[in-house]
Amino acid sequence: MRWWGWGEDERAISLPPTAGDALRIELGMDGSERGVRVSLEEVELPDSGLTAAGRSALEQAVGAEHVLDDRAARVTHAVGKSFADLVQIRSGDGSSAPDAVVAPGSSAQVASVIAACAAHGVAVIPFGGGTSVVGGVAALRGPHRAAISLDLARMDRVIDLDGNSLTAALEPGVFGPALEGRLYTAGLTLGHFPQSFEFSTVGGWVATRSAGQASTGYGRIDELVESVRCVTPAGELHTREVPA
Ligand SMILES: Cc1cc2nc3c(=O)[nH]c(=O)nc-3n(C[C@H](O)[C@H](O)[C@H](O)COP(=O)(O)OP(=O)(O)OC[C@H]3O[C@@H](n4cnc5c(N)ncnc54)[C@H](O)[C@@H]3O)c2cc1C
Q1: Is residue 104 part of a domain?
Q2: Ligand 1: distance of its center to the CA of 129 in Å?
Q3: pLDDT of the residue at 240
Q4: Is residue 79 part of a domain?
Q5: Which of 132, 151, 170 is the last residue of a domain?
Q6: Contact 90/8 with Cβ under 8 angstroms?
Q7: Which of 4, 19, 90, 215 would suit a FRET pair with 239, their CA atoms being 20 to 30 Å apart?
Q8: Which of 137, 190, 200, 224 to mutate for ligand 1's pocket (most ligand atoms within 8 Å of CB)?
Q9: What ipTM did this prediction achieve?
């Protein structure tokens, strides 16, 4: 996903000139109003608030290679995809960037990260696909010393698929197309197609109670969830699984 907008450079599509002309006429603009997008190197990032001890604890939790604080990782996780987000980041304001991006590979590692953050005064902001349009992934520190983005993309497994009860056990970082591809092989569908489907995750859908264009028939995501396991600083919450 582009740090400054929607989609991927490899599959870029451009607006046909006639569509651009139609928009300019409709909006009464001549095109000169278009702002300039800064380069990745020009985005201003806050100094890291992560202590050496805090970083070390995170590295122990997930492995050093999964604790990233390079410019690209921080900028990519600084904002979601609302109009306001894109104006902010394109103008070079990276003030909501996390101090580090931490990518656990299992729920046990998530628990270790949460414990490390609680011990070192670090705020945790979960990150699925980063398509939030309400500021949900902005890594604001609040009263904390630092903030990390907890990127769940490595946890992308379909753990179990039960064709009899029509239930599936999913990790949070599965993206829409991968999930539907897997269900398709069993002749099934989740029936959940938000317009951000391609770039959003199961965990993000559940956290935001998302709805899609087929939800009138299949129900919103909260009507499709049977049970959840959540790691919290106070311990794990596991709701009852059905059918029992
Ligand atoms: C072009 C576009 C179209 C959209 N269309 C729709 C639509 O049709 N319907 C709709 O409902 N929304 C839509 N959205 C909004 C957004 O895509 C949804 O809210 C989506 O569910 C977010 O999923 P995500 O994986 O990108 O989550 P993120 O944006 O990464 O996260 C969203 C929120 O959930 C939290 N979160 C993410 N994963 C977890 C997790 N595993 N555990 C706990 N918290 C977590 C994050 O901290 C954040 O607060 C659209 C957005 C865009 C930009």
Answers
A1: yes
A2: 7
A3: 87
A4: yes
A5: 151
A6: no
A7: 215
A8: 200
A9: 0.99
Kindly state whether residues 147 and 165 are assigned to the same domain: no
Q: Do 166 and 146 fall within a single domain?
A: no
Instruction: Residue 54: give its domain's CATH number.
Output: 3.30.43.10
Residue 194 tokens, joined: 């938000």
Burial tier of 143 (Cβ tally within 10 Å: 0-12, 13-18, 19+) = exposed
* Ligand 1 binding site (Cβ under 6 Å of any ligand atom): 6, 80-81, 125-133, 136-137, 152, 172, 194-196, 200-201, 203-205, 207-208, 210-212
- What is the tally of structural domains in the chain? 2
Domain membership of residue 80 (yes or no) is yes
For residue 194, the CA-to-ligand 1 centroid distance in Å is 9
Supply 85's token pair.
Answer: 């987000």
Domain with 147 in it:
37-151
Q: Quick one: CA torsion of 215, 229, 207, 196, rounded to 10 degrees?
A: -60
Q: What is the pLDDT of residues 168-208, one digit of tens each?
A: 999 999 999 999 999 999 999 999 999 999 999 999 999 99
**Parallel, antiparallel, or unpaired for β 122-127 and 158-162?**
unpaired
Taking a C-beta distance cutoff of 8 angstroms, is the pair 49, 145 a contact? yes
Compute the distance between CA of residue 163 and CA of residue 31 in angstroms, rounded to an integer: 54
DSSP state of 11: G
6 has a pLDDT exceeding 70: yes
